[in-house]
UniProtKB/TrEMBL annotation:
It comes from Mycolicibacterium arenosum. Gene3D superfamilies: NAD(P)-binding Rossmann-like Domain (3.40.50.720). PROSITE patterns: ADH_SHORT (PS00061). PANTHER family: 3-OXOACYL-[ACYL-CARRIER-PROTEIN] REDUCTASE, SHORT-CHAIN DEHYDROGENASES/REDUCTASES FAMILY MEMBER. This is Mycofactocin-coupled SDR family oxidoreductase. Coiled coil: none annotated. Pfam families: adh_short. Keywords: Oxidoreductase. CDD domains: SDR_c.
Amino acid sequence: MGALEGRVAFITGGARGQGRAHALALAAEGANVVIADAPRPMNLTYPLGTEDDLRATAKEVEEFGGLCLPIPMDVRDPDAVSAAVDETVSSLGGLDILVANAGIVSTGPLDEVTDEVWHQLVDTNLTGVFHVLRAVIPVMRRRRFGRIVVTSSMGGRMGIPELGAYNATKWGVIGLAKSVALEVAKEGITVNVICPTTVHTPMVQPVDADDVPDELVQRMMRANPIPQPWIEPEDVSRGLLYLVTDPGVVTGSVLEIGLGGSARIH
Ligand SMILES: NC(=O)c1ccc[n+]([C@@H]2O[C@H](COP(=O)([O-])OP(=O)(O)OC[C@H]3O[C@@H](n4cnc5c(N)ncnc54)[C@H](O)[C@@H]3O)[C@@H](O)[C@H]2O)c1
């Protein structure tokens, strides 16, 4: 029997990349999974997850034998988030695990960041996490159980040139998660943060591209003590699994999966 048999997990940004790997990892441990993704279009240099991606991932997840509910949803829309949480509870009977993973990136010198890009980053990476936490906590509180993991980034632990706007959102969610962890600590709910270094997903490398990292990734690679360009989504899922199977003694913590970058900070 898997460690998450009978649990229901809700994963934002679950159509592909890390969210997809998390959905597969949690399903392999017996969880029923909701994947929410396919946001409204944004003005970015790479495409976002689609409803086709959602359906394809849901099919793969169900091969583990549990249920997978794909929900098209944009974390920037609070009503859509609340409706998706309600649908989860009515279809799957509860919501025990939240993985607030949806996010976008945009790079460039700060004086070239447009208002539009700044707002897209803040609305998705910070306000989007707020929307999801606010909708999910009352459900977990009623059951006096919850495991919440927020995806930040090693960019939320340090400054990185040309990632200032993104990093501001990723520092922000750490403050949000630590504060909420204190609010719910007596109610059986844990809130932790995961900080991956560069991950080999469509966010940094188009799916049909060869595996040559771009200039920014190469710069990050040179800064990392372990000299490899990126980690794989499954490396992050292993950390996630630790946090969501914890019996309830780890909360307010930040797990850095950073190719040794942690050795250079604090
Ligand atoms: N890839 C990296 O190098 C890296 C490193 C550290 C942290 N992260 C963070 O990890 C998380 C997952 O990213 P990934 O690497 O899997 O990238 P990805 O682009 O492959 O996946 C992100 C998913 O989030 C979805 N999404 C984006 N905005 C959304 C919105 N407003 N509403 C709903 N869904 C939305 C996208 O459609 C996409 O499917 C993000 O928060 C990202 O910032 C990524």
